[in-house]
Design brief:
The structure holds 2 protein chains of 2 kinds. Chain A is built from 13 helices and 2 strands; from the N terminus they run αααααααββαααααα. Chain A is mainly α. The chains are: A mainly alpha, B alpha/beta.
Chain lengths: ~475, ~220
C-alpha cells in the first residue's frame, strides 16, 4: 500500500481528503502552539547566544591582539628612538672629542695671546713728556730788560738757542717713542685676529652642540611620549610602519629582480659543473646549485651588514666583541669576494657555452652566420662585471629586509585585528539574524493556524465584552 | 639537546633516505624507412634528426636506425648516443652524431622489404636499456609493412610507457585509389600500439616538429 493511498481518507475524492488533512494539521498545530513557540524561541536563543558568545570571544581576542600590537609597536618605537638618541649622543661625543678635547690648549693659547696683548698694550701707552721745569726760569730770564746790554743779549740768545735745541731733542725723542708705540700696536693686530678666529671656532662648535642638544631634546620628547603609551604616538608609529612596509617591500622586489638576473647568469654554466641532466626532486641540480649560491651570497651579505652593525637581525653578532666582529667582517667579505669572482668566471663560461650552442644550432640548420658580427667582448665583459657586482649589490638587501621584517610584524598585527573585528561583526550579525528568524518563524507558524486563532480571538473578545454588557444592564436597571 | 639531535636525525633520514629515483631524461629512437620509394624522403628525415639534436638536452639519449628487410637487429642502428651531462661535451657529441647521419643519408641503399615491427621491438629494447624517463619511438615511414617470407611479426607487441609518433606518413598510389587503405593502415598501427601499452600519434606537418614531444 503506497503512502498516497494511505493519505486518501475519502476514497474517490482527493481534494476532500486533502482538506481533511489540512484541518487535522491546523488543529494539531494549534494545539501544539505554545510548546512549538517555546521550542522556536529556545532554538533562536541558542543560536543568538552562541553567536553573541563567539562575537564576544573574537572581540576579546581582537582587543588582546590590538594591545599586543600596541606593545610591540611602542617597544619598537622606544628602541628606534633610543637608537637615534644614542646616535645623537655619539655625534655630540665625537664633536666634544674632536673640538673641545683641545680646550686646555686652546685656553692656554688664548691666555698667552691675552697676556701678550696686555703687555703690548701697556708698552704702547703714551708716556707724558718730561715736565718743563726750566720754562719758568727761562720766562723769568726772558723778561729781564736787556737795555742795550750786549752781554745780557748774548746770554739771552744763548738761552734761546739752548732752549730751541732742547726743544728739538725732546720732540725727536717724543716722535721716536710714538713711532715705537705705533709699531707695538701694529704688532698686536695678528694676535687680535688670531684670537678672533679662535673665538669664532669655539663659537661654531658651541652652536653645533646647541643644535645637537635641540635634536636630542626633540627626540627625548618623542621618547617620553612613547613611554607614556599615548594613542597619538601609537598612531604615528603605525603609519610609519606601514610606510616602511611598502617601501621596503618595493626595494625587496627590486632585489628579487636582481637575484633572478643573477640566477640566469649562472644557471647554465652551473650545468657544466654539476651536470645538465641530473635532478633534485623535479628541479634541475644546476638550477638548485645556482639558487644556493645566490642564497649563500645573500646570507653572507646579511652577516656582513650585521657585523658592521648596520642591521640588527641577529643580536648574537651585534653582541660580539669588536675583535671578533672585525674577524667576522673580513671572513664574510672574503667569502663574498670569492663568490663574486666565481660568478664572474661562470658568466664568462656562460658566454662561451651560449656561443657554442649557437654555432651548433647554425650547423644543424645548415645556416652560415651572416651579417656584421657584433663586438663579442662587450656582452662578455658586461656579463662578467654583472656577475661580479650583483653579489655585492645583493648584500644591501639586508637593510630593506630588516625594515620589512620589523614592519610586517605591525602590518600583520593590524591586518589580524581587522580580520578579527570583521569576524566579530559577522557573528553579531548572525546572532541578531537568528533572533529575528525565531520571531519570523513564530509569526509564520501562526499564519498557518490563523483560522483557530481567529476563532480564539473572537471568543476572547466576546468574553471580555460580556461582563461589560452585564455591568451596563445592571446600571440601566 | 636530545630533542634537537632527534630532529636532525629525522630530517637527515628524510633527505637521504628517500632519494628521488624519477628519471627526467628523454630517450628517442627514430626508425627510418629506406624501402624503395620512401628512400627519397631521407632528406626530410635528416631535418627531423637535426631538430632532435637541437632540442635534446644533456643526459638524453638518441638513436637512429633504418628499417629494412629484417630490422630486429643492432646492425640496423645507424647512430646511437647518450649525451654527456656537460653541455659542452654534449655539443661535441651532437656534432659527431650529425656527421654519421650525413654519411648515412649519402650512402643509404634502398631495401626490398619493410620490417617496421622488428624495428619497433629493437627500439623498445634500446629505450629500456637507456633508462629514459620519457620514451619516444619515431617512425619515419608510410607504415606499409612488407615482410620477407617466413618472418613472423603478427603478434602483440609490448611497448609500455612508450610514445610512438608516426612521422610523414605519406599516401601511397593505392591510397589515392582507395583512401580507406590509408586509414586502415594507420588505425591498425594505432590499435597495435595502444593495446601494447603505448600511446600513438601521427605528425605529418613537418613544419611543426615541436608537436613530437607534446601530449
Amino acid at each position: 500500500m503506497s503512502l498516497t493511498k494511505l493519505l486518501i481518507i475519502w476514497p474517490g475524492s482527493p481534494v476532500v481528503s486533502m482538506l481533511i488533512w489540512i484541518v487535522v494539521m491546523v488543529v494539531l498545530l494549534y494545539l501544539a502552539r505554545t510548546p512549538a513557540h517555546r521550542a522556536i524561541h529556545s532554538l533562536a536563543r541558542v543560536f543568538h547566544n552562541g553567536f553573541r558568545l563567539m562575537a564576544r570571544s573574537v572581540m576579546l581576542a581582537e582587543e588582546k591582539l590590538a594591545q599586543r600590537n600596541k606593545e610591540v609597536l611602542l617597544n619598537a618605537g622606544v628602541e628606534s628612538v633610543e637608537r637615534l638618541i644614542e646616535r645623537e649622543f655619539h655625534r655630540v661625543n665625537s664633536v666634544v672629542k674632536r673640538d673641545l678635547s683641545g680646550y686646555p690648549t686652546l685656553h692656554r693659547a688664548l691666555s698667552d695671546q691675552t697676556t701678550k696683548i696686555d703687555e703690548d698694550y701697556r708698552d704702547s701707552s703714551e708716556t707724558p713728556p718730561p715736565p718743563p721745569g726750566w720754562i719758568n726760569a727761562m720766562e723769568a730770564v726772558a723778561k729781564l730788560p736787556s737795555q742795550g746790554d750786549g752781554t745780557v743779549a748774548n746770554i739771552l740768545n744763548e738761552i734761546h738757542k739752548t732752549s730751541v735745541a732742547q726743544y728739538k731733542t725732546t720732540m725727536e725723542e717724543y716722535r721716536k717713542s710714538v713711532a715705537e708705540r705705533h709699531n707695538l700696536l701694529k704688532k698686536m693686530m695678528p694676535y687680535w685676529r688670531r684670537m678672533a678666529q679662535t673665538l669664532e671656532q669655539v663659537g661654531k662648535t658651541i652652536t653645533g652642540l646647541h643644535e645637537r642638544a635641540n635634536v636630542i631634546d626633540n627626540r627625548m620628547a618623542e621618547y617620553e611620549e612613547i613611554r607614556e603609551q599615548t594613542d597619538k604616538s601609537a598612531r604615528m608609529l603605525t603609519a610609519s610602519s606601514l610606510t616602511q612596509f611598502f617601501i621596503s617591500g618595493f626595494v625587496l622586489l627590486v632585489a628579487v629582480g636582481g637575484a633572478v638576473i643573477n640566477f640566469n647568469l649562472i644557471a647554465l654554466p652551473m650545468s657544466e659543473m654539476v651536470g645538465g641532466g641530473s635532478y633534485i626532486g623535479s628541479f634541475k641540480t644546476a638550477n638548485v646549485a645556482a639558487m644556493v649560491i645566490i642564497l649563500v651570497e645573500v646570507a653572507m651579505g646579511l652577516y656582513l651588514m650585521e657585523s658592521l652593525r648596520i642591521t640588527r637581525l641577529f643580536p648574537i653578532i651585534g653582541q660580539m666583541d669588536d675583535k671578533m666582529r672585525t674577524r667576522m667582517i673580513w671572513i664574510t667579505f672574503s667569502i663574498l669576494l670569492v663568490l663574486a669572482s666565481v660568478e664572474s668566471a661562470l658568466a664568462y663560461m656562460r658566454d662561451q657555452i651560449a656561443a657554442d650552442m649557437q654555432a651548433l644550432r647554425h650547423s644543424l640548420a645548415a645556416v652560415e652566420a651572416t651579417g656584421v658580427a657584433v663586438n663579442s667582448w662587450i656582452p662578455t665583459v658586461g656579463q662578467m662585471v654583472m656577475g661580479f657586482v650583483l653579489p655585492f649589490a645583493l648584500t644591501f638587501v639586508a637593510i630593506p629586509l630588516e625594515s620589512f621584517v620589523h614592519s610586517s610584524r605591525t602590518v600583520l598585527g593590524v591586518a589580524g585585528t581587522a580580520v578579527l573585528r570583521w569576524f566579530s561583526f559577522f557573528f553579531r550579525l548572525l546572532g541578531n539574524i537568528s533572533r529575528y528568524m525565531g520571531e519570523l518563524l513564530v509569526n509564520i507558524y501562526d499564519l498557518f493556524i490563523f483560522p483557530p486563532l481567529w476563532v480564539e480571538n473572537l471568543i476572547r473578545d466576546k468574553r471580555q465584552h460580556q461582563p461589560e454588557i452585564i455591568v451596563e444592564e445592571e446600571a440601566s436597571r | 639537546m636530545k630533542k634537537y639531535l632527534t630532529l636532525i636525525l629525522i630530517l637527515s633520514a628524510l633527505l637521504w633516505g628517500c632519494p628521488d629515483t624519477t628519471s627526467y631524461s628523454k630517450g628517442v629512437y627514430m626508425l627510418l624507412d629506406t624501402s624503395g620509394t620512401y628512400k627519397k624522403e631521407l632528406k626530410r628525415a635528416e631535418a627531423i634528426i637535426n631538430y632532435l639534436l637541437g632540442t635534446l638536452q644533456p643526459g638524453d639519449s638518441l638513436a637512429v636506425a633504418r628499417i629494412d628487410s629484417g630490422s630486429f637487429s643492432e646492425k640496423d642502428i645507424v647512430a646511437k648516443m647518450t649525451f654527456d651531462k656537460r653541455p659542452s661535451v654534449a655539443n661535441q657529441q651532437k656534432r659527431l652524431f650529425k656527421q654519421k647521419i650525413d654519411e648515412f643519408v649519402k650512402t643509404a641503399k634502398g631495401s626490398a622489404y619493410t620490417d617496421i615491427t622488428g624495428g619497433v621491438l629493437q627500439s623498445v629494447e634500446f629505450l629500456n636499456e637507456a633508462g629514459a624517463g620519457q620514451k619516444y619511438i619515431l617512425i619515419f615511414s608510410d607504415l606499409k609493412e612488407d615482410l620477407v617470407k617466413g618472418h613472423v611479426r603478427d603478434f602483440p607487441i609490448q611497448i609500455d610507457g612508450c610514445n610512438v609518433v608516426a612521422l610523414n606518413v605519406t599516401k601511397l598510389r593505392s591510397d589515392n585509389v582507395d583512401p580507406r587503405e590509408y586509414y586502415k593502415r594507420v588505425e591498425d598501427w594505432r590499435s597495435r600500439v595502444e593495446s601494447g601499452g603505448g600511446t600513438w600519434r601521427v605528425v605529418n606537418d613537418l613544419e611543426r616538429l615541436e608537436n613530437i614531444f607534446e601530449g
